[in-house]
Amino acid sequence: MADAKPVSAPEGATGVLVLANGEIAWGRGFGAEGEAVGEVCFHTAMTGYQEIMTDPSFAGQIITFTFPHIGNVGANADDVEAEEPHALGMIVREDVTAPSNFRAVERLDDWMKRHDRIGLSGIDTRALTRRIRTGGAPNGVISHRADGKFDIPLLLQMARAWPGLEGMDLAISVTTETHYGWEGGIWRLGFGYGADAGGDSRPHVVAIDYGAKHNIYRNLVRAGAKVSVLPATATFDQVMALKPDGIFLSNGPGDPAATGEYAVPVIRQLLETRIPLFGICLGHQLLGLAVGAETSKMFQGHRGANHPVKRLSDGAVEITSMNHGFAVLGETLPATARETHVSLFDGSNAGFELTDRPAFSVQYHPEASPGPQDSFYLFEKFVMSLEKAA
Asked: Residue 356: is its pLDDT beyond 90?
């Protein structure tokens, strides 16, 4: 990483990353041309780059992949967690090659271009990751210009003017606009995603979408539930009108304190009904705020598919998928909340349950996509609690 003094690109450079502190990294652009400004983070997963790019929790972020060979399995229509990418762009070490996978239908760089997302290759991602680990996740601009002409002072100004994720409500920009019933089943090789074949006798889960991944709904269906989805701004009356047997609070991007301005009062009302409730990621943070805990922005965040989490009830270790830049402060949980999981990387809170209400949540992603499936039992635990309550 160098200081942002030179205004002309080195020979062959068609892409650049400019950080708010003035550091720059030159590379080769791919995907769409243009600029995008956001928080630069890193992700340690070796697979699942389409799922990561389309995870709504990555809205407002530029992802540095620590695995060097991103793109070599191509892209397809099945490996997505939303209708379009929500991450702003990606930074990778090696150039994107032709796909080598029987499921590929197009190259990753073509998929990125079609979805208006910027890529940057040829970057020393190890150095950039170390920079994020020691200095925190910075604000920055990623730019791709085929002619190699960049206005570095303007890009630096853009990076410095971006306000950052703290205090930003992004759930409102990625949530569904309407109520709908989820109909997708589980993916099977050779068949894709089949229709949800369950009947109406299953327990009914009403999910509040703060930026949900599709695989959450698929796993709820797999565990035996019928799922209806409401926007992040859903009111208490709108949720209750659907006669839920259970309530689900989804993952999502941005600062939970900002989203909590409208979400927390509704969650507090829902808790009073004593209807079983389950939250993931942002939903976990919002539940924490609703019971009086505090959240804070993390220094670098947790983003990867190999994060060890200790289950405090029996000491078992789950290898989990994580993607979050904010966390519930475990020491601020009230006496009516019992910590259930902690991160073995830094000891931060990774789950809690209420002792006076049928509600629990986890900071990680038990639905994976990508990642291990050690934690699918949480969906089963939730749906079983609905059947018992009925």
From this structure: yes
Task: Quickly tell me which residue has 């924490």 as its tokens.
Answer: 288
Query: From CA 346, how far away is CA 110, in angstroms rounded?
Result: 38
Other C-beta atoms closer than 10 Å to the C-beta of 247 total: 27
180-205 pLDDT, tens digit per residue, is: 999 887 788 877 887 766 667 899 99
Does the annotation mark 83 as catalytic?
no
Rounded to the nearest integer, the mean pLDDT of the chain is 95
Angstrom distance (rounded) from CA 127 to CA 7: 22
281 is catalytic: yes
From the list 41, 281, 307, 353, the catalytic residue is 281
Q: Residue 307: which H helix or E strand, with range?
A: strand 295-311
CA–centroid distance for 135 within its chain: 22
**Rounded to two decimals, what is the model's pTM?**
0.96
b/e sequence 162-190, b meaning 16+ C-beta within 10 Å = beebeebbbbbbbbbeeeeebebbeeeee
